[in-house]
Task: inverse folding
């Protein structure tokens, strides 16, 4: 891989792109690609890899060996290696800096003139802990700082131990937009600023056709899978959907023409009718979402792509509301709250298909344009100082 060469006026972007998560990688791609349309050859994604820090090396070696052996016995190592390779190939389509650990990032400061914190849960202390890199604690004091569609991942106020550092670092930003209304409130409480905006996830910056054009021809799967299918995409780090997912899949498949069911992501048993695709990468994810007739998911980005691609879909949400309101916030913003269900009984109260009526389409298109205007304003402010 050729590393990005810094030149005068280059802009450094930092976001969550290194985890093996489709949404994280794709939102990073969408933001960088959109910025490149304003600043060709000037955008660099800072390849920060927190997992390569010393804290990873100090992890319980015995636990890591046991995990490896379990995966080896279950035949999962081979598929994991394929997935990792596919993510590496995908990331090669983004201009990256050299890979940096925490110590390398803070010791050899990249020294860009402008820094942009991207989207996803970059400001969620549940995952970040005392790592304030995504708040740009490593950036020079005189650098311009922006945040675009960043997320705290929670509607709860920050713990006291993080309050002062978040307050100090957020106050340095020139302009901030967040992904959830709860993030707007947290930002206002921390900074006493009223200039923050709520925008959509960066994946909405690109339309279905634009995403389709991103997929290399060798990743087009039209000959590999059925011409019609229901696609499931589940993640379990927020909550496990498997207690209710099998019944929901069975009911939707029965009511939706008996289409075969494909599943990417997740490890739970979902019945004999579900065919797992154990080694999908980001390009596979895009192609399958574009071609699917129906989507069943519990993921934020699974929901986002289903809506962006105007798919019939259902999102399984937590039985009880808690501090993680990311999916609910998205459904409410886009006038699609009814598409969130808790169990199979909720299917009785809503249409099977998704009604992308005039109001819903206007809302989606309007928020997409607001999101693009916010990014354009960031670009305009950067251009005034370059």
Result:
């Amino acid at each position: 891989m050729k590393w990005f060469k810094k030149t005068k006026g280059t802009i450094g972007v930092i976001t969550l792109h290194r985890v093996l998560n489709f949404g994280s990688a794709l939102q990073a791609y969408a933001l960088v690609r959109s910025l490149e349309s304003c600043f060709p050859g000037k955008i660099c994604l800072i390849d920060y890899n927190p997992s390569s820090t010393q804290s990873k090396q100090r992890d319980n070696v015995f636990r890591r060996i046991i995990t490896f052996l379990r995966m080896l016995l279950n035949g999962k190592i081979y598929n994991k290696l394929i997935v990792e390779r596919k993510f590496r190939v995908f990331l090669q389509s983004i201009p990256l800096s050299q890979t940096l650990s925490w110590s390398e990032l803070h010791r050899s400061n990249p020294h860009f003139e402008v820094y942009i914190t991207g989207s996803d849960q970059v400001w969620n202390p549940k995952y970040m802990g005392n790592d304030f890199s995504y708040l740009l604690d490593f950036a020079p004091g005189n650098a311009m700082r922006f945040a675009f569609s960043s997320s705290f991942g929670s509607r709860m106020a920050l713990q006291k131990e993080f309050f002062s550092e978040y307050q100090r670092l957020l106050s340095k930003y020139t302009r901030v937009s967040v992904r959830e209304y709860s993030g707007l409130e947290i930002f206002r409480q921390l900074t006493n600023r009223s200039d923050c905006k709520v925008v959509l996830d960066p994946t909405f910056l690109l339309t279905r056709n634009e995403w389709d054009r991103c997929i290399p021809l060798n990743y087009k799967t039209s000959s590999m899978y059925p011409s019609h299918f229901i696609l499931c995409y589940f993640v379990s780090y927020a909550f496990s959907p498997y207690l209710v997912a099998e019944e929901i899949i069975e009911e939707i498949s029965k009511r939706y023409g008996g289409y075969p069911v494909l599943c990417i992501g997740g490890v739970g048993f979902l019945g004999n009718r579900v065919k797992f695709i154990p080694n999908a990468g980001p390009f596979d994810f895009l192609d399958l979402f574009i071609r699917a007739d129906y989507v069943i998911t519990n993921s934020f980005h699974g929901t986002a792509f289903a809506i962006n691609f105007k798919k019939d879909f259902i999102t399984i949400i937590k039985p009880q509301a808690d501090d993680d309101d990311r999916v609910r916030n998205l459904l409410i913003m886009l006038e699609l709250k009814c598409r969130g269900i808790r169990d199979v009984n909720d299917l009785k109260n809503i249409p099977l298909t998704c009604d992308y009526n005039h109001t819903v389409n206007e809302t989606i298109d309007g928020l997409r344009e607001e999101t693009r205007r916010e990014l354009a304003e960031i670009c305009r402010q950067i251009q005034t100082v370059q």
The CA atoms of residues 334 and 354 lie 12 Å apart. DSSP finds 14 helices and twelve strands in the chain. The first strand starts at residue 11 and ends at 14. The chain has two domains: 11-204+367-385, 220-355.
